[in-house]
Prior knowledge:
It is a single chain. The protein is of the alpha+beta class. The chain contains 10 helices and 12 strands. A hairpin with a 2-residue loop joins β8 (241-247) and β9.
Amino acid sequence: MTLKEIAFEINKKSIGYEIGDLQSIRKSIKGLKRVSTNSIFVDNPNTLTDSWAFHYGGRSEIQYNIGFEDEGLRYGLAFSLETSQSLPDIDILYPKVLKLNCLIRENPEFFREFRMWYWNGDKRSEILEVTEIRQSIIKKGIFIFFGKTLKMDEIEIDEILKTFDKLLWVYKTIETSNFEPVVSTTIKPTTDFVFESKSRALAETASYTTIEREINVDIRHSYLQKLLQTELISQFGKENVSIENFFNGNKIDIVVKYNNDYHFYEVKTASSAKSCVRQAIGQLFEYAFGNGKMNASNIYVAGEFAIDNETEIYLNFLRNEFKIPIYYRQIKK
């Protein structure tokens, strides 16, 4: 089979699979007024060639991609960092690479069945387990792929479509923008923290490139922590904001002194507000209540994405039903 034949067969058989609605999904999450096709792949030399193809509209997205490799047919998701008329600057892809890195860190079991490699011109890397994408390979012209391969004499279109369906939540998570945030405040504490008038330096903020800040999860954490510190200083005053505070054997990202109470903030670099809450909630509970006392009047999960309705309902339930003063705060960039 030629690659075009494979692509058109995928289109044809995609009816009945969730991926068959990819263009409708794109229309919904991107707020498009209309889509000019309902097909995954279209016969266009910019998106479908004799050796590779990506989904229609995928130039500036994490793209569904198929192509020929020495091992056979690759199929999965990819980032193409090649500039073009429709993508003159690859910077738009950096936040999407960061989201993928977060997902890989959050869901190692899911990614275990896939493999990852990249192309630099006509040179290909080894085929490896899926890992967080390193800053060193983020440059113009690089093609980064993760997914699976099928031998040419064993191509099974339904197998490809099942894998595309399985990867759809990754595509949706990376391409979806969250809703506007809902933030509140309330209730009571104890304890003493050291508040310094000078700003404490963060371990990861000494020197990093713009790309590292955009795609490296740990560096991104320090960057967001610094942004939140600045926000809180402007809101509560420098003398009331303490960063990296050791307390009961734990290190709290940020403590704010509010009247006679304290607010604890845990910063998370994750793929969504929901994931931030999931990661932070145990730590915040230990910080605030771990010694059997009320150490903070409010506890905050802080992340860069706006909160979604489901997560806001969950936090409201914890506040109203169990009187736990937990909130989510979006860090403005």
